[in-house]
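hiii so um. not sure if this is the right channel but i have a protein structure encoded as tokens and i wanna go backwards to a sequence. like what aa goes where. can anyone help
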């Protein structure tokens, strides 16, 4: 049977990169195994709903190139895929559990629950609604049947709680962690359904995974504590459970704890795929896209945070990742985020991209600077500078002088390279270069070298002063290639201006 997997985010804010990695692993698994990946929006907790989060999630995956086969925004035969639109469907399932003795109605008011908590605290204990305490509470296990009927009929608030059998070892089989065993006495009778008509995450998640024929649940380690309840719910419904794989946490760069929302902007890297503007706090958090990462680099980096292909290969396209992916190579240990690694991946992907593909990014930067030029010129400049870029916005800093002539010259470079008489020598060289018709960079190189040799000049001095005249500083790519790309007319103007401005 072809696997069916899902990514099931709750629209409570922007998608953390840990969530992106979860979606990526689901995607790789589905593609590798000719399976189906669906996007389900789990929005049953209306109090945590955040405006714009769902649109953000969809846009982020479009940018990253993770395509869903079914789900919100796509459709499919198991829809609707947004839980709030499935609301009416869950109640009968909650009732079925009550009727079968796997759950019960609880009517305890917030005050009654609070009193129980306080009472436990006074004995230095924590209150838990469970097999030990439930018979002392106000629920359908302790009230006479008629009273339960009456309370339900009169519209009294209630919740449906799961009824764990006492002292039962619950076995969770995890594809990454092996077998995990938890005793039911440690677990509280989780709320599954509320009288406002909304299921909680647990009930909706299990019902939907079943109805949507999910075969593998691949999700973050933070859901492992919920897995025993989920295993029990499948048992209670008499359904076959999917296979579980709980992914290792993404850790802070120093390995001390989970990578949190706040870490990114504090430590200088984004933790969200796209920039996020929080509608409530007004706060803006940076995103990989806006920081100048290429989506391919983000995908490659995330794939290796918790998984490896079994050798030391690091650069892998999406197709290669799909080909190599397997759940048994996912590690149990948390994966440390590394900014240096992120930078390295991005640099490598910029290098790999043909200039024409980078063009739209750099065109945007040039537009912002009010610069126009031909595509040919932009591409030629790109090829010359791309090995100096870690992030797309580095382009201006590394290549701005190709588009705007320098008006100032780096004083330190001048001090070192520009001596009395330098202007005269540059005038001679300029004349020589302008005389090469049509311009030929190898010829130019040979002529200048010959001139240096014939006049017994200092090579570093001459070449660097020419460079300063063109660039404004003593940096940049190979001199004659740069002159060739910039064009001899432009170079001539720059040299003349430098001689005039520096004027030693
Ligand atoms: N809605 C849950 C979340 O926000 C889904 C967890 C799961 O995959 O079961 O992560």
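sure thing!! here u go:
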């Amino acid at each position: 049977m072809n696997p069916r997997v899902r990514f099931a985010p709750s629209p409570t804010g922007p998608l953390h990169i840990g969530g992106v990695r979860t979606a990526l692993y689901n995607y790789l698994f589905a593609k590798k195994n000719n399976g189906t990946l669906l996007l389900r929006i789990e929005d049953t907790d209306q109090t945590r709903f955040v405006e714009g989060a769902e649109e953000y999630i969809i846009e982020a995956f479009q940018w990253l190139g993770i395509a869903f086969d079914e789900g919100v925004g796509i459709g499919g035969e198991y829809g609707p895929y947004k839980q709030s639109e499935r609301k009416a469907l869950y109640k009968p399932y909650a009732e079925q559990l009550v009727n079968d003795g796997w759950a019960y109605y609880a009517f305890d008011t917030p005050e009654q629950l609070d009193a129980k908590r306080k009472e436990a605290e006074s004995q230095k204990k924590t209150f838990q609604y469970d097999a030990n305490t439930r018979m002392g509470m106000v629920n359908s296990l302790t009230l006479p049947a008629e009273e339960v009927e009456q309370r339900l009929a009169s519209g009294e608030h209630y919740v449906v709680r799961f009824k764990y059998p006492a002292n039962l070892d619950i076995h969770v089989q995890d594809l990454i962690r092996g077998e995990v065993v938890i005793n039911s006495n440690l677990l509280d009778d989780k709320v599954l359904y509320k009288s406002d008509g909304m299921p909680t995450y647990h009930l909706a998640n299990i019902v939907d995974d079943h109805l949507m024929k999910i075969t593998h649940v691949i999700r973050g380690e933070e859901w492992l504590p919920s897995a025993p309840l989920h295993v029990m719910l499948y048992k209670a419904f008499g359904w076959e459970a999917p296979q579980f794989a709980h992914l290792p946490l993404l850790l802070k760069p120093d390995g001390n704890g989970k990578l949190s929302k706040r870490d990114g902007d504090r430590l200088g890297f984004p933790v969200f795929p796209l920039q996020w503007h929080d509608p409530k706090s007004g706060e803006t958090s940076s995103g990989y896209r806006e920081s100048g990462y290429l989506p391919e680099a983000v995908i490659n980096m995330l794939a290796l945070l918790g998984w490896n292909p079994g050798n030391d290969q690091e650069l892998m396209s999406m197709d290669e990742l799909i080909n190599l992916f397997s759940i048994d190579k996912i590690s149990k240990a948390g994966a440390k985020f590394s900014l240096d690694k992120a930078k390295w991946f991005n640099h490598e992907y910029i290098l790999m991209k043909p200039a024409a593909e980078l063009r739209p990014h750099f065109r945007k930067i040039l537009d912002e600077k009010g610069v126009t030029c031909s595509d040919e010129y932009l591409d030629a400049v790109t090829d010359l500078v791309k090995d100096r870029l870690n992030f797309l916005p580095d382009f201006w800093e590394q290549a701005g002088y190709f588009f705007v002539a320098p008006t100032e010259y780096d004083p330190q470079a001048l001090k070192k390279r520009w001596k009395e008489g330098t202007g005269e020598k540059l005038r001679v060289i300029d004349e020589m270069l302008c005389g090469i018709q049509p311009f030929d960079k190898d010829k130019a190189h040979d002529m200048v070298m010959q001139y240096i040799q014939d006049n017994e000049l200092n090579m570093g001095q001459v070449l660097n002063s020419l460079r300063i005249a063109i660039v404004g500083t003593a940096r940049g790519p190979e001199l004659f290639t740069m002159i060739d790309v910039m064009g001899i007319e432009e170079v001539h103007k720059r040299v003349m201006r430098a001689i005039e401005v520096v004027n030693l």
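oh and The mean pLDDT is 96.
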